[in-house]
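Practice problem 4.
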């Protein structure tokens, strides 16, 4: 089911990219080092590396790395090469870390992946796998909004200007005939950019009437009296759209393909394990969320249960939906039409899928040049 925010669009002249940088969801911008390995390295080193540095967000749309690390599934595939992880709260910070070499591989939303690729003129990263689909909803105050026809004049929060959910809401409102200035958020409906960690408080205080947000923020709002008026899955063919991808530094991919393949095996096996052990996986996810490097506390049952259920894990990057999301950003005026040819390299993923007896996945014509 579905990284996690971005900052401002500078003027129109700087709009060749999704404003400032893009993400899928999160709670700030600093990375926290997860120094306590859940499983110790054991055996031969992969590609001769002492460690592989990975990054992700502390939310349920990043269940793959959270559970995979908690259960030691990535470490098992890397043998004597240690997994070193960093937890990020915003897409731009993770892209910056990838570009600087602070991480080698990351889980991130579609918007920051697009932004990072376009900004680097196709040189910084490759998307090497999918991870999650869905997990995004429009949650409303039922006392103020009774139906989807009641949005005019209301204030709806999104995590950040130009981020994945922000683009989705702007596209939805435009399709309903509402006029909204994408940059200011003002118009027939007010789009208020609010950090996910602040959104529940704003909702309780009544400064927003609704929010188009990812999990677990959506389920937090529902637990506090909100009502899910629209699950974004209903807007997509077969109910599928990318919310989390795996990306890798092109330099690391070229120099250490065996390590990348090992992490991909860990990802594929983690997704399979989660699907076959849902109750245990949900507990592992919540235990990892309680790590001091993430939130320091687990989610209550009335939040973790629906948040876990609403996210669909997938190895397929759902490449066609990435292009569609980029098209929505262009339509909203937040992005100049990008050339995404080459953003995917699914060679190693399909090798892993074949070895696991699974069907190959497609890059929708956006594979390596």
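Answer key:
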């Amino acid at each position: 089911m579905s990284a996690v925010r971005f900052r401002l669009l500078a003027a129109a002249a700087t709009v060749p990219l999704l404003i400032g940088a893009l993400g899928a969801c999160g709670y700030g911008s600093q990375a926290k080092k997860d120094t306590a390995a859940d499983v110790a390295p054991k055996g031969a080193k992969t590609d001769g590396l002492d460690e592989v540095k990975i990054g992700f967000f502390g939310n349920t749309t990043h269940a793959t790395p959270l559970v995979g690390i908690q259960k030691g599934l990535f470490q098992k595939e890397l043998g004597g090469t240690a997994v070193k992880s960093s937890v990020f709260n915003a897409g731009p910070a993770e892209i910056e870390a990838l570009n600087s070499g602070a991480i080698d591989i990351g889980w991130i939303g579609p918007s920051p992946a697009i932004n990072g690729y376009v900004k680097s003129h196709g040189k910084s990263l490759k998307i090497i796998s999918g991870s999650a689909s869905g997990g995004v909803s429009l949650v409303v105050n039922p006392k103020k909004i009774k139906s989807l026809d009641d949005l005019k004049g209301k204030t709806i929060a999104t995590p950040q200007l130009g981020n994945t959910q922000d683009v989705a809401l702007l596209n939805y409102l435009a399709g309903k005939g509402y006029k909204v200035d994408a940059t200011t958020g003002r118009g027939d409906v007010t789009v208020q950019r609010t950090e996910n960690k602040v959104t529940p408080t704003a909702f309780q205080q009544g400064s927003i009437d609704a929010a188009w947000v990812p999990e677990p923020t959506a389920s937090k709002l529902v637990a506090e009296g909100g009502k899910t008026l629209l699950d974004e899955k209903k807007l997509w063919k077969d109910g599928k759209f990318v919310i989390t991808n795996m990306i890798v530094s092109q330099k690391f991919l070229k120099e250490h393909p065996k390590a990348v393949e090992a992490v991909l095996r860990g990802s594929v096996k983690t997704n399979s394990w989660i699907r076959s052990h849902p109750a245990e996986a949900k507990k592992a996810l919540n235990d990892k969320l309680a790590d001091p490097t993430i939130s320091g506390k687990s989610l209550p049952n009335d939040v973790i249960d629906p948040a876990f259920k609403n996210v669909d894990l997938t190895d397929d990057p759902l490449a066609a939906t990435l292009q569609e999301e980029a098209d929505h950003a262009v339509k909203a005026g937040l992005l100049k039409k990008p050339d995404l040819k080459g953003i995917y390299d699914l060679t190693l993923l399909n090798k892993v899928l074949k070895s696991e007896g699974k069907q190959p996945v497609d890059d929708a014509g956006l594979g390596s040049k």
